[in-house]
Amino acid sequence: MEPGPGMGPGMGSGMGPGTGPGMGPGIGPGAEPQRWPAASCVLTGASRGFGRSLARLLAPRLGRGSLLVLLARSEAPLAQLATELRGSAASGLRVECVAAELSTQQGLRKAVEALRELLPSAPPGPLLVVNNAGSLGDISKSFLDLTDPAEINTYFAFNVTSALCLTTAALQAFGKRPGSSRTVVNISSLCALKPFKNWALYCSGKAARDMMFQVLALEEPDVRVLNYAPGPLDTDMQLLARTKTGDPEMRRHFQSLQESGQLIDCSVSAQKLLKLLEEDAFSSGAHVDFYDV
User: Could you tell me which residues belong to the region Disordered (predicted)?
Assistant: First the structure.
């Protein structure tokens, strides 16, 4: 989720070409997507919004024998999506669902154990991990209203801790395989770089995730890492932003985005992310904004 254009400067698109092997060939406008090799993909927050759109675009690209692991809190929409993808994708795509509440230790443990079970026997091709799951927190509250440690810790457990633990589990379970690339995507935001009133939790959570994945890029040069800010998406989170944000000016800004048609369809932004991955020209660890692609 993004505050939208006009709220701050566009944030750069990376510092140079990547050196990784890339996720697959690029595709031209209107062209049928070319298939990647048999790959393993892990996608959190897959049941709705940007994650659901990304899953629908990923499935037809994945070669025969690929594994797609969908994680989300809500079991019913997750299962519905999995059924849809199994029916529409090429035969041989294995879709696994993991319904887990990632803000709790029990839910996170369930998700980690699922990855440890699924990924060691995954196909030998590329690994793609997309950390999309996230939440706004209570944006009706100002900084001085955030006094409950349990509320704050639950927020960071979901938005930071789970992303770290799931990424670690995926990379360890998949392991280093000769000829297999590994790519980690963090769905970021302009809020990782710029503060906004009433969004102390969201801004600090996004900033923490960006830096966390920059450290991964530094420590593991053979892992391609991308912090992708998807732009102001037309999702339920934007509805919350324009109705629940405590600061009146911020609320009016989000309302104007919706009224002026500036919100971005999730599939459009997801397509840009796949283009970035397929071209593989970003600097590992870079923060790349939708408007810079």
Answer: 1-35
